[in-house]
Amino acid sequence: MAVQAGRARRLPSLGGERLREAGVGYAFVLIPLGVFVLLQLYPMAYAFYVSAHEWGGIEGNLGYVGLDNYRELRHDEAFWTWPPARATALWNTVYYALLVVPLQMTLGLTLALLVNQAIRGRTFFRSAYYFPALVSSAAASAIALYLLSADGLVNAVISAILGRDFTHPWFGDADTALESIIVLDAWTTSGTMMLFYLAALQSVPVDVYEAAAIDKAGTWRTFWKITFPLLKPAHFFVAVVSVIGALKFFDQAFIISTGSGGPAGSTMTAVLYVYTVTIKEFNYGYGATVGVVLFLIIFTITLAQRLLFGRSEIVY
Amino acid sequence: MSEREEVAPPVAAVRELALEGEAAVGTPVAIPPRTVAERTRRVVLFSFMIVVALLYLVPFVYTVATSLKTQAEAAAGFDLWPDRASLSAYREIWSREDLSFVTFFKNSLILATSITVITLFLATLGGYAFARLRFPLREPLFLLVLGTLMIPDQLRLVPVYLMMVDFPITGWNLTQTLHGYVFFGSSIALATSLFLMRQYFLTIPKDYEEAAKLDGAGYFKTYWRIMLPLAAPAVAAVAILTFQGIWNEFFWANLLLTGDNSNYTVQMGLVQFRFQYQTLWPQLMAATTIAIIPVLVVYVFFQRYFVAGVAAAGVKG
Questions:
Q1: How many domains does chain A have?
Q2: Residue A19: CB partners within 8 Å, gap ≥ 6?
Q3: CB contact under 8 A, A131 and B281
Q4: Phi, psi of A54, rounded to the nearest 5 degrees
Q5: Among A44, A71, A98, where does a domain finish?
Q6: Which of residues 216-245 of B touch A (CB under 8 A)?
Q7: Is residue B32 domain-resident?
């Protein structure tokens, strides 16, 4: 393999032209690849390295400790317990994912089906449903904090319906804090999921529906027998995006709990735990260890999803 | 992987993007309702869609309304609109001593713009090479690019932080500086953008380049003068999505910029304001509105690129 500078002199022969093209090709991808190596691959390898060391914020690298950090994590009751218990970082995250993923997928598909109809104001509805997805996590969290505060709009509406004063602090109670964030995230991400499903619905050939219409299949039947199975690649894609998003969930929990993961650890997510250990407790070695374990979990899940759903045509 | 296998949502959207003119994601032609039952069904459905739209939008209307209220009025009740709209909440947060939103706004604008320009240049250049130029190891290298999408942020948190505090070889501390964030931020949207650009370049017929070649244009000139203009819709999509992504970005900004107030982004300022002033609702909602407006403006003007771009690239934090 010959690498040649991009500004090489033009050669008349075919071989020279090939060489030149290859040289230019490498030159064009050089910087992007450099960025990936420096800011993605190197940190990834470095994470494994740091996790095998005792590494403090002030002391720096205190030496190789092998798998000690991993052993510590196995018995870390702030990270996880067996049997699973709430208020641990890992199980909070799993609980969050188990609720938010089906919610996002159902909402996304429903919205996509709604706006895929030939109906008046279609463009308006698409924009309206997508709008929350446009907004930053910080803005969405601030709005949720306002609406769901003890004397906020949501409680005012509930009070009006119940006919008595209702002042439940949604984010201030360990029993409803994470659940409220789940609703918030379903609201803000459903628009994105809708777009994914909409793109997939568009690529279902029209003659499939024509055939169904000729067979006099009803709307409901057509959906379950034809549309839903045809959307399999989209289900896979949306599920992967949704699960990965759920497992790296951080912003809303951090912002709403003022960085504490409270009340009573109810919004302590796995990534918030990595952040807390690293930035607040200056325990870099241990923080890297938690990160590596999370990566391995995500990797396994993605692999399992792929095996379960079969080889998908989607690239990632 | 061959091109034929990639018929899936993302790629379908790239094609839609290529079809300029009609809205990126189109729909079947309207069929007029025939029976009474059908009509009723449509009315019910339409009403349902209106209700959902209200649920999705009212929080934002209420946010803006509260930002125009005074502290007393916001505490008093739940009028959807203020009695006497005033911009006092905006004035208060715009140039505070401790948290100055005019500074945050400027920072966010600088960061989002410069990272967008860098991402655009690298993604189109790389995308063109991966789509069109033949060089050894092209496919494995492209898979490597896609593979970086699998590296989750939580794994990179510690190493990136360590790296940015004490950069290898040079020993620079790149945290708490805007240029440090620009440097790191350029990696955030690059892989998806490069992927999107490559897919788009693949849809452009080869004739254009061959014509350029006959005219004696070199590779860079072909890329700059022929391919880039032809890929304008995809370039627009990448630009808009990157800008929005960086404008909204909180995780890395919080990690890398925390410490020096004067380098905070709008999102960080908003969060700090909430941390310090808990329930000053009009001001907090004013800050929230400021954080939303730029992406709203971009969305209103470039909606169709947004829709196809999101579907194509799946960029969204």
A1: 2
A2: A2, A4, A8, A11
A3: no
A4: -85, 115
A5: A71
A6: 219-220, 223, 244
A7: no
- Which candidate from A22, A29, A131 shows the least CB-CB separation from B57? A131
Residue A289 and residue A177 in one domain: yes
A149 part of a folded domain: yes
Report the interhelical angle of A137-147 vs B232-248 (nearest 10°): 50
Do residues A233 and A103 both lie within one domain?
Answer: yes
Q: Is B11 part of any domain?
A: no
Residue B197's domain is classified under what CATH number?
1.10.3720.10
A294 close to B (CB below 8 A) = yes
Do both A85 and A182 map to the same domain? yes
Residue A288 is which amino acid?
A
ipTM greater than 0.95: no
Same domain for A281 and A164: yes
Minimum Cα–Cα distance from A127: chain B residue: B303
CA distance A83 to B258: 37
Examine the domain organization and report whether A65 and A83 are in the same domain.
Answer: no
> Same structural domain for residues A87 and A143?
yes
Burial of A20 (0-12, 13-18, 19+ CB in 10 A): buried
H or E element in which residue A95 lies: helix A89-115
Q: Do residue A52 and residue A185 come from a single domain? A: no
Q: Does residue B36 lie within any of the structural domains?
A: no
CATH label of the domain that carries residue A153 = 1.10.3720.10
Nearest chain A residue to B60, by CA: A143
Of A24, A41, A143, the CB nearest to B288: A143
| Range(s) of the domain holding residue A41 | 14-71
**Is there a contact between B161 and A313 if contact means CB atoms under 8 Å apart?**
no
Show which of residues 270-289 on chain A sit within 8 Å of chain B, judged by CB atoms.
270-271, 274-275, 278-279, 284, 287-288
Dihedral sign of CA atoms A229, A230, A231, A237 in order:
positive
Per-residue pLDDT of chain A (316 residues; tens, 9 = 90+): 444 444 445 545 667 888 999 999 999 999 999 999 999 999 999 999 999 999 988 788 888 998 999 999 999 999 999 888 888 999 999 999 999 999 999 999 999 999 988 888 888 999 899 999 999 999 999 999 999 998 889 999 999 999 999 999 999 999 999 999 999 999 999 999 999 998 888 877 777 777 777 777 777 888 888 889 888 888 888 888 888 889 889 999 999 999 999 899 999 999 999 999 999 999 999 999 999 999 999 888 888 877 876 554 443 3
Look at residues B244, B148, B232, B245 and name the one whose alpha carbon lies nearest to residue B197.
Answer: B232
Q: Is residue B21 part of a domain?
A: no
* Inter-chain residue contact A44 with B303, CB threshold 8 Å: no
Rounded to whole angstroms, how far apart are CA atoms A25 and A92?
46
Q: How many domains does chain B have?
A: 1
Distance from the Cα of A60 to chain B's closest Cα (Å) equals: 10
CA distance B305 to chain A (A): 12
B59 contacts A147? CB cut-off 8 A: yes
Pick the residue of A17, A21, A35, A251 with the most B CBs within 10 A to test the interface with B by mutation: A35
